Amino acid sequence: MKLLIRPAPEVAIKSKPVRRQQMRHLRQNIRKLLARLDPEIRVEGSWDRVDVEVPDGRGLSGPALELLLRIPGISTIQEIGAFPFVSLEDVAEKAVEAFADRLAGKTFAVRARRHGEHSFRSIDLERTVGAALMQASGASGVDLKSPQVEVRIEVQDDQFHIAHRKHRGLGGYPLGSVENVLTLISGGYDSSVAAYLMMRRGLRNHFLFFNLGGTAHEVGVRQVVHYLWDRYGASHSAKFISVPFEGVVAE
Description:
Layout: E1 2-7, H1 9-12, H2 16-37, E2 42-45, E3 50-53, H3 61-68, E4 74-84, H4 88-99, E5 107-115, H5 122-137, E6 141-142, E7 149-156, E8 159-168, E9 180-184, H6 189-200, E10 204-211, H7 214-233, E11 240-244, H8 246-250
Parallel strand pairs: 5-6, 5-7, 9-10, 10-11
Antiparallel strand pairs: 1-3, 1-4, 2-3, 4-8, 7-8
Helix pairs in contact: 2-3, 4-5, 6-7
GO molecular function: ATP binding; CCA tRNA nucleotidyltransferase activity; sulfurtransferase activity; tRNA binding
InterPro entries: Rossmann-like_a/b/a_fold, ThiI_AANH, ThiI_fer, THUMP_dom, THUMP_ThiI, tRNA_STrfase, tRNA_sulfurtransferase_ThiI
Protein name: tRNA 4-thiouridine(8) synthase ThiI
């Protein structure tokens, strides 16, 4: 399975040098976390996208997608079907297999792009695929301005890609692309949410805990911190600093 990852708008609007730096952080974070699932997962990209290729037949697609949905800095994740290009009719057949069940009673539009030399135009591809989908899907019609479903196809030389489901990412900035911070954590709701929001803004958190309630309290706070780090910050190491404060409370 192939996944097309787009950065969050906060990253996309930056100047070229800043965007290049943040995209590098994003690729590194994705590569580091996906390597835990399988070191053969490929991560590549450019200034406005990250391409992830997950080996088929290993049960990695679901876990990889779930992990990517928790990485700060990602706007959307699009599942991509990749096929060798044979003919326009073959592209249409693959599009029917992917979208026919999702178009019943809905309007749709086919958006095609090409890269390379081909004997057909993009509009020829759009018409061929659109006609096949109208015949096979029971769609209510074609709406080029505001369709309920968009069928996106991209032809690159002798390959073509069909965009499947799109998932919304966490947004924000890539973790580590901004400064490190020391977060005062109590284990309660407010400090935990604040830590999450800072991670989402690209801040690498280290955690400071003033222990007011003994060992049991500290164990509970460590569990909260580990949950936050494991879900949203595991691309970077984090420190947990515990300050014994029971004596102060006793006074």
